[in-house]
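Query structure, 530 tokens:
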């Protein structure tokens, strides 16, 4: 007699849940009934029984289940009572059958073959979030035929084996590696963030082919090609495989030893990215980057109070590289930590040199979120100060609001530490993005830099000037210094001074200058006392 059937059980068996119903009515045949009796006896004896059986729904459908039977001490003495927990195994059985039907693994490498790959890929795509991106990649030995002709096909087989072992080392967790036939491997990376993740992987794949191998006393060198296709959760897996194969052929046609993306737009972007990464390496390795300094002056007196250090790099052929791009690339590769440290050191040293020549000025250094999060940041700042002898209050650390407003990685503590060293913190680009007046009150800052877009609107828009006035008033109450960035006209300058803005920075005063030009600029301008 069933006393209780949970909602999922009711749906599964198609029963409305109202007693009376007998558990044995839901067993499809005598064999299942025997099994049930056996389970009940075992549970009576041992307390529980775990096993598999089949149930039959009201509609006649037979459902394979795994089940646990638990025997209870009966409240009514002689009536044996059981709890039965069943799990529907239909999906798993179906999949297992499907797998059994196909021959699943490759003999040479022991890797899943094409059939298993397709099943797994289907599952990966089905299980992924609809907007998640999955990368499907094909990798193939270039000109394997030539290896076979030169060394014999045994050696050719071992090349494939060696490559397969190397690639296996790269595969993690939910990734799939399969042999697709010939010397062709397929790799599926699930939930990639963008095209650069599979590109990074493709480069490692290429090394699996290109690193020399010693086989039967021969030193064998081959190259490989990789094709990459990106697909979303809802896509057809066969389509994705076809696209990856097309990309692979493109890589081979281009001479092999390289990767190609199915999407040509992505291919272009990737190419540009590769070039820019090379620019960055070049800049860092040659040490040919330098800092430009843009003077900051007192809005009323016009005397120089400081300068903002801005990263500069000129590529030997391509000309100047935007600091935005350089910084972004350095952030992505992690190089920003070392570069940022050198920028701090250089800026502090150069500012100290100017101070020693009688120009009592501060220097402002831009710091990226990744630097601030790094455990060494506070020490780096303190080192730069000690090494250069720059007084801490003459170093201003510029950060944007998004960087300042989070505390996921101990940012607040780093900021507090920087300020307790005596350095000042500036909120850069105020007026863009998420800037809010309450941010000024709540953030641990000393300086607000009004963004250039703000200043551009200023003379034409009463709203912009009202906002500047509000910021200035609030800043006054909070004892913050207000710097206007991107001031290009005398009109803007005059209005800002009238509104009570403390400092001015922009082309009107000066473009960012090389250190030599800055020497001249400082000589030509009187310098205030901080
Ligand atoms: P930012 O911190 O807002 O720097 C001000 C940018 O505005 C500079 O561009 C500067 O040349 C430009 N600028 C200054 N005055 C004017 C003006 O009157 N009119 C106009 N139209 N533009 C003006 P730059 O040097 O290209 O730097 C761009 C950004 O790159 C910087 O924006 C900063 O976010 C980043 N950056 C530069 N150097 C560094 C660095 O050393 N470290 C880090 N983390 N970021 C840096
Ligand atoms: Ca800045
Ligand atoms: Ca800015």
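Result returned for the query:
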């Amino acid at each position: 007699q069933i006393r209780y059937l949970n909602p999922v059980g009711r749906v599964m068996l198609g029963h409305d849940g109202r007693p009376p119903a007998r558990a044995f009515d839901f067993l499809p045949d005598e064999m299942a009934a025997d099994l049930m009796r056996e389970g009940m006896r075992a549970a009576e004896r041992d307390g529980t029984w775990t096993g598999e059986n089949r149930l039959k729904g009201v509609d006649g459908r037979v459902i394979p289940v795994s089940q646990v039977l638990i025997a209870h001490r009966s409240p009514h003495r002689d009536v044996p009572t059981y709890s039965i927990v069943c799990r529907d195994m239909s999906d798993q059985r179906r999949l297992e059958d499907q797998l059994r039907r196909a021959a699943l693994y490759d003999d040479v490498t022991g890797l899943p073959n094409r059939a298993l790959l397709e099943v797994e890929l289907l599952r990966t795509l089905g299980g992924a979030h609809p907007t998640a991106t999955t990368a499907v990649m094909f990798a193939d030995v270039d000109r394997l035929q030539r290896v076979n002709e030169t060394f014999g096909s045994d050696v050719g087989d071992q090349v494939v084996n060696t490559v397969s072992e190397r690639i296996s080392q790269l595969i993690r967790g939910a990734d799939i590696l399969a042999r697709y036939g010939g010397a062709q491997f397929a790799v599926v990376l699930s939930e990639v963030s963008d095209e650069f993740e599979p590109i990074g992987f493709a480069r490692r794949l290429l090394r699996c082919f290109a690193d020399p191998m010693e086989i039967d006393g021969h030193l064998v060198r081959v190259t490989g090609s990789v094709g990459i296709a990106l697909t979303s959760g809802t896509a057809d897996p066969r389509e994705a495989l076809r696209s990856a194969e097309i990309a692979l052929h493109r890589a081979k046609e281009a001479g092999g030893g390289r990767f190609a993306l199915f999407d040509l737009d992505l291919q272009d972007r990737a190419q540009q990215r590769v070039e820019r990464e090379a620019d960055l390496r070049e800049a860092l390795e040659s040490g040919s980057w330098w800092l430009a300094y843009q003077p900051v002056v007192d809005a009323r007196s016009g005397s120089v109070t400081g300068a903002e250090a801005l990263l500069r790099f000129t590529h030997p052929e391509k000309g100047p590289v935007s600091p935005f791009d350089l910084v972004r690339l350095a952030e992505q590769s992690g190089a920003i930590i070392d570069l940022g440290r050198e920028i701090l050191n250089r800026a502090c040293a150069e500012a100290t040199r100017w101070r020693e020549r009688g120009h009592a000025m501060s220097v402002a250094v831009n710091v990226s979120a990744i630097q601030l999060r790094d455990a060494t940041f506070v020490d780096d700042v303190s080192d730069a100060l000690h090494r250069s002898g720059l007084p801490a209050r003459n170093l201003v650390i510029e950060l944007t609001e998004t960087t300042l407003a989070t505390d996921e990685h101990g940012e607040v503590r780093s900021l507090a530490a920087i300020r307790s060293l005596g350095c000042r913190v500036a909120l850069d680009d105020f007026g863009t993005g998420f800037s809010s007046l309450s941010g000024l009150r709540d953030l641990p800052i000393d300086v607000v830099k009004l963004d250039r877009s703000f200043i551009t609107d200023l003379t034409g828009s009463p709203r912009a000037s009202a906002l500047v006035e509000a910021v200035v008033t609030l800043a006054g109450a909070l004892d913050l210094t207000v710097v206007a960035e991107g001031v290009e006209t005398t009109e803007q300058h005059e209005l800002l001074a009238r509104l009570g803005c403390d400092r001015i920075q922009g082309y009107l005063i000066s473009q960012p200058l090389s250190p030599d030009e800055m020497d001249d600029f400082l000589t030509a301008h009187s310098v205030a006392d901080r």
